[in-house]
Design brief:
Keywords: Oxidoreductase
Pfam families: ADH_N (PF08240), ADH_zinc_N_2 (PF13602)
Low-confidence stretches: none
Number of domains: 2
Protein name: Quinone oxidoreductase
Distance between the termini: 12 Å
Shape: globular
Largest sheet: 7 strands, mixed
CATH superfamily of the largest domain: Medium-chain alcohol dehydrogenases, catalytic domain
InterPro entries: ADH-like_N (IPR013154), ER (IPR020843), GroES-like_sf (IPR011032), NAD(P)-bd_dom_sf (IPR036291), Quin_OxRdtase/zeta-crystal_CS (IPR002364), YIM1/Zinc_Alcohol_DH_Fams (IPR050700)
Oligomer: single chain
Organism: Pseudooceanicola lipolyticus
Radius of gyration: 20 Å
Length: about 325
Protein backbone atom coordinates (compact mmCIF):
# COMPACT_ATOMS: atom_id res chain seq x y z
CA UNK A 1 0.00 0.00 0.00
CA UNK A 2 1.00 3.62 -0.40
CA UNK A 3 1.51 5.63 2.77
CA UNK A 4 2.76 9.07 3.74
CA UNK A 5 5.51 8.46 6.25
CA UNK A 6 7.64 10.68 8.45
CA UNK A 7 11.27 9.66 8.71
CA UNK A 8 12.11 12.54 11.03
CA UNK A 9 10.25 14.83 13.41
CA UNK A 10 10.35 18.61 13.47
CA UNK A 11 8.69 21.68 11.90
CA UNK A 12 10.69 21.21 8.69
CA UNK A 13 10.19 17.45 8.42
CA UNK A 14 8.45 16.32 5.23
CA UNK A 15 6.07 13.49 4.41
CA UNK A 16 7.45 10.89 2.02
CA UNK A 17 5.27 8.66 -0.15
CA UNK A 18 6.28 5.09 0.64
CA UNK A 19 5.26 1.64 -0.57
CA UNK A 20 4.57 -0.69 2.35
CA UNK A 21 3.03 -4.14 2.72
CA UNK A 22 -0.74 -4.05 3.01
CA UNK A 23 -1.71 -4.71 6.66
CA UNK A 24 -4.16 -7.38 7.74
CA UNK A 25 -7.09 -7.15 10.12
CA UNK A 26 -6.04 -8.71 13.40
CA UNK A 27 -8.39 -10.04 16.07
CA UNK A 28 -10.94 -7.40 16.99
CA UNK A 29 -9.99 -5.23 14.02
CA UNK A 30 -11.37 -4.27 10.64
CA UNK A 31 -9.16 -3.31 7.73
CA UNK A 32 -10.43 -0.07 6.22
CA UNK A 33 -9.60 1.33 2.80
CA UNK A 34 -9.09 4.97 3.72
CA UNK A 35 -10.88 7.53 1.57
CA UNK A 36 -10.23 10.66 3.64
CA UNK A 37 -8.44 11.74 6.80
CA UNK A 38 -8.60 15.08 8.61
CA UNK A 39 -5.77 16.99 10.22
CA UNK A 40 -6.10 17.85 13.90
CA UNK A 41 -3.95 20.10 16.06
CA UNK A 42 -2.60 17.07 17.91
CA UNK A 43 -1.39 15.65 14.56
CA UNK A 44 0.67 18.78 13.91
CA UNK A 45 2.00 18.72 17.47
CA UNK A 46 3.21 15.15 17.01
CA UNK A 47 4.87 16.05 13.69
CA UNK A 48 6.64 19.07 15.15
CA UNK A 49 7.52 17.82 18.62
CA UNK A 50 8.09 14.13 17.97
CA UNK A 51 9.31 12.09 20.90
CA UNK A 52 9.05 15.10 23.20
CA UNK A 53 5.40 14.04 23.33
CA UNK A 54 5.01 10.68 25.08
CA UNK A 55 2.23 9.66 22.70
CA UNK A 56 4.26 10.08 19.47
CA UNK A 57 4.90 6.92 17.42
CA UNK A 58 8.39 5.62 16.69
CA UNK A 59 9.92 6.54 13.33
CA UNK A 60 9.21 5.92 10.52
CA UNK A 61 5.72 7.03 11.46
CA UNK A 62 2.33 7.07 9.77
CA UNK A 63 0.27 9.84 11.35
CA UNK A 64 -3.43 10.65 10.97
CA UNK A 65 -6.03 9.86 13.63
CA UNK A 66 -9.37 10.57 11.93
CA UNK A 67 -10.58 8.70 8.86
CA UNK A 68 -13.54 7.62 6.78
CA UNK A 69 -13.47 4.69 4.40
CA UNK A 70 -14.73 1.28 3.37
CA UNK A 71 -14.34 -2.03 5.22
CA UNK A 72 -12.12 -4.39 3.21
CA UNK A 73 -11.50 -7.19 5.71
CA UNK A 74 -12.90 -8.31 9.06
CA UNK A 75 -10.78 -9.81 11.81
CA UNK A 76 -11.67 -12.60 14.22
CA UNK A 77 -14.25 -11.75 16.83
CA UNK A 78 -15.68 -8.71 15.07
CA UNK A 79 -19.44 -8.45 14.67
CA UNK A 80 -21.66 -5.70 13.33
CA UNK A 81 -19.62 -4.96 10.21
CA UNK A 82 -19.45 -6.45 6.73
CA UNK A 83 -17.04 -6.00 3.87
CA UNK A 84 -18.18 -2.94 1.92
CA UNK A 85 -19.57 -1.03 4.90
CA UNK A 86 -18.78 2.68 5.01
CA UNK A 87 -17.27 3.55 8.39
CA UNK A 88 -15.51 6.37 10.22
CA UNK A 89 -13.45 6.69 13.36
CA UNK A 90 -10.41 7.92 15.24
CA UNK A 91 -8.19 4.91 15.71
CA UNK A 92 -4.49 5.47 15.02
CA UNK A 93 -1.62 7.85 14.39
CA UNK A 94 -0.13 7.66 17.88
CA UNK A 95 1.86 5.26 20.06
CA UNK A 96 1.94 1.87 18.34
CA UNK A 97 -1.26 2.39 16.33
CA UNK A 98 -0.78 2.92 12.59
CA UNK A 99 -2.33 6.14 11.35
CA UNK A 100 -4.72 6.96 8.52
CA UNK A 101 -2.27 8.62 6.11
CA UNK A 102 -2.23 5.39 4.13
CA UNK A 103 -4.41 3.48 1.70
CA UNK A 104 -5.38 1.04 4.47
CA UNK A 105 -5.66 1.21 8.25
CA UNK A 106 -6.19 -1.74 10.61
CA UNK A 107 -8.63 -0.24 13.10
CA UNK A 108 -9.93 -1.54 16.42
CA UNK A 109 -13.62 -2.18 15.73
CA UNK A 110 -14.49 -0.61 19.10
CA UNK A 111 -13.16 2.77 17.89
CA UNK A 112 -15.28 3.07 14.75
CA UNK A 113 -18.91 3.26 13.66
CA UNK A 114 -20.92 3.28 10.48
CA UNK A 115 -20.46 6.72 8.97
CA UNK A 116 -23.34 9.17 8.60
CA UNK A 117 -25.26 8.26 5.45
CA UNK A 118 -25.83 11.95 4.69
CA UNK A 119 -22.13 12.83 4.83
CA UNK A 120 -19.46 12.47 2.19
CA UNK A 121 -16.25 10.67 3.06
CA UNK A 122 -14.57 14.06 3.36
CA UNK A 123 -17.21 15.32 5.80
CA UNK A 124 -17.24 12.12 7.84
CA UNK A 125 -13.45 12.15 8.21
CA UNK A 126 -13.67 15.63 9.76
CA UNK A 127 -15.96 14.57 12.60
CA UNK A 128 -14.53 11.83 14.90
CA UNK A 129 -11.90 13.48 17.12
CA UNK A 130 -13.65 16.82 17.46
CA UNK A 131 -17.07 15.20 17.78
CA UNK A 132 -16.02 12.82 20.53
CA UNK A 133 -14.19 15.61 22.37
CA UNK A 134 -17.18 17.95 22.25
CA UNK A 135 -19.55 15.16 23.29
CA UNK A 136 -17.41 14.12 26.26
CA UNK A 137 -16.97 17.70 27.42
CA UNK A 138 -20.66 18.57 27.37
CA UNK A 139 -21.49 15.27 29.04
CA UNK A 140 -18.94 15.88 31.81
CA UNK A 141 -20.42 19.36 32.33
CA UNK A 142 -23.94 17.93 32.51
CA UNK A 143 -25.30 20.43 29.99
CA UNK A 144 -29.10 20.34 29.80
CA UNK A 145 -31.94 22.26 28.20
CA UNK A 146 -32.38 25.84 29.32
CA UNK A 147 -28.82 26.35 30.54
CA UNK A 148 -26.67 29.22 29.36
CA UNK A 149 -23.50 27.82 27.77
CA UNK A 150 -20.40 29.63 26.56
CA UNK A 151 -18.11 27.97 24.01
CA UNK A 152 -14.66 29.55 23.86
CA UNK A 153 -13.35 29.23 20.30
CA UNK A 154 -16.74 28.57 18.74
CA UNK A 155 -15.47 28.56 15.15
CA UNK A 156 -12.67 26.05 15.84
CA UNK A 157 -12.66 22.33 15.22
CA UNK A 158 -13.96 21.22 18.61
CA UNK A 159 -15.76 24.48 19.26
CA UNK A 160 -18.10 24.48 16.27
CA UNK A 161 -19.23 20.93 17.07
CA UNK A 162 -19.68 21.81 20.75
CA UNK A 163 -21.92 24.71 19.70
CA UNK A 164 -24.13 22.39 17.65
CA UNK A 165 -24.33 19.67 20.27
CA UNK A 166 -25.11 22.16 23.06
CA UNK A 167 -27.90 23.62 20.96
CA UNK A 168 -29.21 20.12 20.27
CA UNK A 169 -29.35 19.59 24.04
CA UNK A 170 -31.55 22.69 24.30
CA UNK A 171 -29.00 25.07 25.79
CA UNK A 172 -28.82 28.78 25.03
CA UNK A 173 -25.38 29.04 23.44
CA UNK A 174 -22.93 31.92 23.09
CA UNK A 175 -19.49 31.53 21.57
CA UNK A 176 -16.31 33.55 21.23
CA UNK A 177 -14.32 34.23 18.10
CA UNK A 178 -12.91 37.19 16.24
CA UNK A 179 -13.14 38.57 12.73
CA UNK A 180 -16.09 38.55 10.38
CA UNK A 181 -15.52 34.99 9.13
CA UNK A 182 -15.37 33.37 12.57
CA UNK A 183 -18.32 35.35 13.90
CA UNK A 184 -20.37 34.41 10.83
CA UNK A 185 -19.60 30.72 11.41
CA UNK A 186 -20.71 30.99 15.03
CA UNK A 187 -23.92 32.76 14.14
CA UNK A 188 -24.56 30.31 11.31
CA UNK A 189 -24.60 27.45 13.80
CA UNK A 190 -27.17 29.22 15.95
CA UNK A 191 -25.02 30.69 18.73
CA UNK A 192 -24.73 34.29 19.84
CA UNK A 193 -21.32 35.49 18.58
CA UNK A 194 -18.91 37.32 20.89
CA UNK A 195 -15.85 39.10 19.51
CA UNK A 196 -13.35 38.50 22.31
CA UNK A 197 -11.07 41.24 20.98
CA UNK A 198 -13.67 43.98 21.20
CA UNK A 199 -16.10 42.81 23.92
CA UNK A 200 -15.05 42.83 27.57
CA UNK A 201 -15.97 39.77 29.64
CA UNK A 202 -18.09 41.81 32.05
CA UNK A 203 -20.00 43.29 29.11
CA UNK A 204 -20.97 40.02 27.44
CA UNK A 205 -21.65 38.29 30.74
CA UNK A 206 -24.01 41.15 31.48
CA UNK A 207 -25.79 41.14 28.13
CA UNK A 208 -25.91 37.33 27.68
CA UNK A 209 -26.61 36.17 31.25
CA UNK A 210 -27.92 39.21 33.06
CA UNK A 211 -24.64 39.36 34.97
CA UNK A 212 -25.05 35.95 36.62
CA UNK A 213 -22.48 34.17 34.45
CA UNK A 214 -22.72 31.06 32.29
CA UNK A 215 -23.88 27.74 33.74
CA UNK A 216 -21.23 25.91 31.70
CA UNK A 217 -18.16 27.09 29.81
CA UNK A 218 -16.55 24.84 27.18
CA UNK A 219 -13.06 26.23 26.64
CA UNK A 220 -11.44 24.77 23.52
CA UNK A 221 -8.72 27.46 23.68
CA UNK A 222 -7.50 26.67 27.18
CA UNK A 223 -4.16 27.62 28.63
CA UNK A 224 -4.11 31.22 29.79
CA UNK A 225 -7.62 31.68 28.40
CA UNK A 226 -8.95 29.56 31.25
CA UNK A 227 -8.82 32.65 33.47
CA UNK A 228 -11.32 34.27 31.08
CA UNK A 229 -13.54 31.20 31.32
CA UNK A 230 -13.45 31.39 35.12
CA UNK A 231 -14.42 35.05 34.93
CA UNK A 232 -17.37 34.28 32.62
CA UNK A 233 -18.70 31.37 34.70
CA UNK A 234 -21.54 31.56 37.19
CA UNK A 235 -21.21 30.51 40.82
CA UNK A 236 -20.85 26.71 41.10
CA UNK A 237 -20.66 26.46 37.30
CA UNK A 238 -18.97 23.78 35.20
CA UNK A 239 -15.84 24.60 33.19
CA UNK A 240 -14.50 22.18 30.58
CA UNK A 241 -11.19 22.50 28.80
CA UNK A 242 -9.30 20.49 26.22
CA UNK A 243 -6.03 22.38 26.78
CA UNK A 244 -4.69 22.30 30.34
CA UNK A 245 -0.95 22.05 29.73
CA UNK A 246 -0.17 25.22 31.68
CA UNK A 247 0.29 26.68 35.12
CA UNK A 248 -2.54 29.02 36.12
CA UNK A 249 -3.93 30.51 39.30
CA UNK A 250 -7.01 28.55 40.38
CA UNK A 251 -8.01 31.14 42.98
CA UNK A 252 -10.83 32.58 40.81
CA UNK A 253 -12.23 29.08 40.35
CA UNK A 254 -12.00 28.46 44.10
CA UNK A 255 -13.92 31.58 45.08
CA UNK A 256 -16.72 30.71 42.64
CA UNK A 257 -16.85 27.04 43.58
CA UNK A 258 -16.28 26.01 39.97
CA UNK A 259 -15.90 22.42 38.79
CA UNK A 260 -13.07 22.01 36.27
CA UNK A 261 -13.15 19.12 33.81
CA UNK A 262 -10.19 18.22 31.57
CA UNK A 263 -11.04 16.23 28.45
CA UNK A 264 -8.27 14.17 26.85
CA UNK A 265 -10.05 12.00 24.32
CA UNK A 266 -6.93 10.04 23.30
CA UNK A 267 -6.91 8.01 26.53
CA UNK A 268 -8.83 5.01 25.12
CA UNK A 269 -6.34 4.68 22.27
CA UNK A 270 -3.30 5.15 24.49
CA UNK A 271 -4.37 2.83 27.29
CA UNK A 272 -6.90 0.48 25.65
CA UNK A 273 -9.40 1.67 28.22
CA UNK A 274 -13.07 2.22 27.42
CA UNK A 275 -12.61 2.08 23.65
CA UNK A 276 -16.19 0.89 23.16
CA UNK A 277 -17.43 4.23 24.54
CA UNK A 278 -15.93 6.04 21.55
CA UNK A 279 -17.65 3.66 19.15
CA UNK A 280 -20.99 4.32 20.84
CA UNK A 281 -20.47 8.09 20.70
CA UNK A 282 -19.61 7.90 16.99
CA UNK A 283 -22.76 5.84 16.32
CA UNK A 284 -24.89 8.46 18.09
CA UNK A 285 -23.10 11.31 16.32
CA UNK A 286 -23.88 9.64 12.99
CA UNK A 287 -27.56 9.56 13.90
CA UNK A 288 -27.49 13.25 14.85
CA UNK A 289 -25.66 14.08 11.62
CA UNK A 290 -28.25 12.25 9.56
CA UNK A 291 -30.99 14.09 11.45
CA UNK A 292 -29.36 17.42 10.53
CA UNK A 293 -28.35 18.34 14.09
CA UNK A 294 -24.58 18.17 13.51
CA UNK A 295 -22.48 18.97 10.46
CA UNK A 296 -18.73 19.57 10.34
CA UNK A 297 -17.47 22.74 8.72
CA UNK A 298 -14.81 22.02 6.10
CA UNK A 299 -11.99 24.36 5.19
CA UNK A 300 -12.30 25.37 1.53
CA UNK A 301 -8.98 24.18 0.07
CA UNK A 302 -9.05 20.51 -0.95
CA UNK A 303 -5.87 18.47 -0.47
CA UNK A 304 -4.85 15.29 -2.24
CA UNK A 305 -2.69 12.58 -0.71
CA UNK A 306 0.40 13.99 -2.41
CA UNK A 307 -0.24 17.39 -0.75
CA UNK A 308 -0.37 16.10 2.81
CA UNK A 309 2.44 18.44 3.86
CA UNK A 310 0.51 21.42 2.52
CA UNK A 311 -2.57 20.33 4.48
CA UNK A 312 -0.56 20.29 7.70
CA UNK A 313 0.83 23.69 6.81
CA UNK A 314 -2.66 25.03 6.18
CA UNK A 315 -3.84 24.08 9.67
CA UNK A 316 -0.71 25.50 11.29
CA UNK A 317 -1.07 28.78 9.39
CA UNK A 318 -4.12 29.70 11.42
CA UNK A 319 -5.96 30.61 8.22
CA UNK A 320 -8.19 27.54 8.07
CA UNK A 321 -11.89 28.08 8.71
CA UNK A 322 -13.19 24.58 9.46
CA UNK A 323 -11.52 21.19 9.34
CA UNK A 324 -8.63 20.51 6.96
CA UNK A 325 -9.11 17.20 5.12
CA UNK A 326 -6.80 15.07 2.96
CA UNK A 327 -8.50 12.84 0.39
CA UNK A 328 -6.79 9.55 -0.41
Amino acid sequence: MKAMTLNAYGPDASFDETDLPRPMAGPGQVLVRVKATSVNTIDTMIKNMGRDLPLSPALPAILGMDFAGIVEEIGDGVTGYQVGDEVYGCAGGLADLQGALAEFIPADARLIAHKPKSHSMREAAALPLVGITAWEGLDRAGVTAGQKVLVQGGAGGVGHIAVQLARHLGAEVSATGTGADQLAVIEGFGARPIDFKSEEIEAYVGSHTGGAGFDAVFDSVGGANLTNSFAAAALNAQVVTTVALSEIDLSPAHFKGLSLHIVFMLLPMLHDHGREVHGKILAELAQLADAGAVKPLLDQPSFTFAKTGQAYGRLQSGKAIGKVVVEI
